[in-house]
Fold these 4 entries.
Entry 1:
Amino acid sequence: MRVTRACRWPVPRRPRIGTFALGLTAALSACAVGPDFRAPNAPATAQYTSERQPTATAQARALPTSQGEAQTFATDVDVPADWWTRFGSPPLNALVAQALADSPTLRQAEAKLREAQENYRAQAGARLLPSADLKLSGTREQVDLASFGITSVPSPGPFTLYNASVNISYTLDVFGGNRRALESLAAQVDYQRFELDAARLSLAGNVVTTALRQASVRAQRAALEGMLAAQRVQLDITQARERAGGVATLDVQNQAALVAQTEAQLPALSAQIAQYDHQLARWLGQPPGAFTSPTIDLATLQLPRTVPVGLPSTLARRRPDIRASEAMLHKASADVGVATANLYPQFTLSGSFGTQRMRTADLGDGINIWSIGMNLLQPLFRGGELRAQRRAAVAAYDAALASYQDTVLLGLAQVADAMRALEADAATLAARADAAQRAETAYRIARERYRAGGISHLALLDAQRQALDATRARLDAQGARLSDTAALWQALGGAPITAAPGDAVVAAPELVRPSNPASAPPR
């Protein structure tokens, strides 16, 4: 890895006689003008929420499964890379694995990373090493001796002059402009790598939350179909009692209307399940018509009891979108160095050696022409172009810094939102589970009393509606708690998600990076 050390040369106001000596001094010290990058400080806040940060959620005692347990927010546990496996669902794990292997979004991100790496490799060779070119030429010429005042000797006839030469050129990176340019390209590689990590995290989060919501809707549809079957049985009983003269026609019509109302809710749920299928198909790289998602039973899903939220000060190191924004800030810092180096002289060594003959067969007889030299280019007057470019680079750094700060704030807000959502989800589930349990008990009692003639048919219908509504509300709350848990895992970032087995691993080139992390931002 090359070492880049920042120089504290002042921005030149005008060309000076001592510039050449200054350049040689800088070359010997192998330094680079412009700022060395320093990552912004981590957020100083000690908690995610403005009020008391929750340490645990409520427990849904009426739901005797893991989904009713309280969740603990831990600050001393690392976020795992494969966080979705904590839900204990092999079909869910298979969905994520297939998405990581086949998603076009990830292939696009991987291709962009390879592009950035190859751009870096191309520029690393061009900027750090001399260039050498072989030149072969043939020129048809004729010399008029009379034009030189020689009239006593006749001018020779036309002849061909062949030339073979090797031209070498090397630009001395006196003020580190080339190294800063490579540092900028290296930051671009980092950006694309973190973008790939972010794409994997986002893809896994989208697949998991969609699959969990689909499981909740499937459970609601199953509950609706179960209640519909019971309502149809009750309709048959009511019709039989009407024929026997035991109930009025009004009771039959009311029961039939309830059956129709329940049936009317099924198409919307089926359409919602199909739409979730279509979303999953896209993320898994398949056309909707060729994909059917596996059935994930809501009741078998495990709710992670411990969620490692960590500290706000560590979020910037965990979330790949924040790391990507930091890489763009690094790139902007290096670009300031490039713009600063453009204000200083540029030194270029050049040389050429070769042979010039009358016949191609004689080109290998030895070198008979050569040259070597050094060029100095000092900008004198560009109409303010170079200084304006440097001011623009500093402004771009300021914009990148503001963008980074906004990305950090967004990450903190998303974690805070997800924690509050889980806190509310637990309380909601506790209330809805209790309500569903009581409504089911009330419906069972209502059926028994109706058979005994103790209540009216309208009272039975009301108990049926309440039991169905309460059950669907509980299932919706279970799905919300699971999907919001996945959303919190996603918001926390954590260890990078590795490539799927069999995927090509994108190798990283050796990058030029700064060595002085304590320097100030550019100004």
Entry 2:
Amino acid sequence: MRFSKSLLLSLATTLMTMLLVIGGLWTTSSVAFAATTNVQMGSSSGMLVFEPAQITVAPGDTVHYEVGGVPPHNVVFDGNLSSLSHPAMIMSGGFDVTVPADITPGTYSFYCEPHRGAGMVGKITIKG
């Protein structure tokens, strides 16, 4: 009888381990991966624009802003996204902005501070 109790215990432990592994694989396969959206600041043809000027992202996604032409540039967000602003002017290169997981879905404006009057503005829509 002692042998069968240990055999049953071993079998139950093995079965529980298998269920945990299979359950873990099933839940991780449904996790969405964050995406990266690229936005060029200033066009290569010399226009003071964001390309694209309208983007749609999800919480957790990253937006990569890259200087394209006519620097210097920065990115300033309005409203609930103001903490994501990159107010420092850059002449080349770029920077990343990651959309917080707890942000309220909606459409927000952003702009390049020195070129806002010239129309260098954009919209970011955050999906819910």
Entry 3:
Amino acid sequence: MGISGFADLPLHTGHVPPWLYSRMVKLSGLIVELLINEHGIRETIRLFSNPIFFQAFNNIIGMDWDSSGSTTITTAALKESLAKEDVGIKVVGGKGVYALN
């Protein structure tokens, strides 16, 4: 028998502070580089496809666990950090019009 349920998460307004976002970019890049070195590209991609892992990663780099926009902000931070390095993975997406770049 599986476990099921739901979570009622509030929609937050505002933005991630720039000082926090810059730290999220740096930390996410370092963690992904470590994951690739330890587990390879294929396993790293598999890990990020797991929503529980993605949420945990989101929390580790500094987002609140119940913050709205956590997926878009985390994706944007990953995209920005990995654009600076050639680690074999590129990220698309992000938040709003910035997702188009």
Entry 4:
Amino acid sequence: MKKLFVIGIGGSVSKANIEVHDVQLVIADCIEKTYEILKEDWYGEHLHLDEYKALTGADGCAIQIKDYPQNTELNLFFLNRGGYLKETFGEQHEYGFFVAKTEEEAKEKAKKELLKNVTDSHVDGIFKVENSLKFADGMKLYIHLILDEKVYSLNPDWSGYKKLI
């Protein structure tokens, strides 16, 4: 069964003093089937996995993977929110997935949920998930959002350090 994997990766890149991190979204049968596409798209060295989650739902909607598009006005957005803590050096980040008709609506939802205890909070990045999907087996698939009002967590299924390159 195909799953939507949210994958936190990191590695070293030219001219950076510390490793950089990114989030990738890949549809695959299992996490191991995402490794090749992650390696192909990485632009630096020492690529590693930091965490992953098979996303089953978000923001009151279950997520299903189908081979045809869904006819809906709703979109699944990924949002990276940044902000600062006075006692901590460096920008803090929190990620979330939000179901909304528009980017502005997703931003408003995120403002209420992410990084509530920081100063100068801001959106570091937002995108429609469908525009950033990668497919482990090359077959284009589609996310279907099914309203169910459940609360879904972004807690990782696994976290640690797994070297890929």
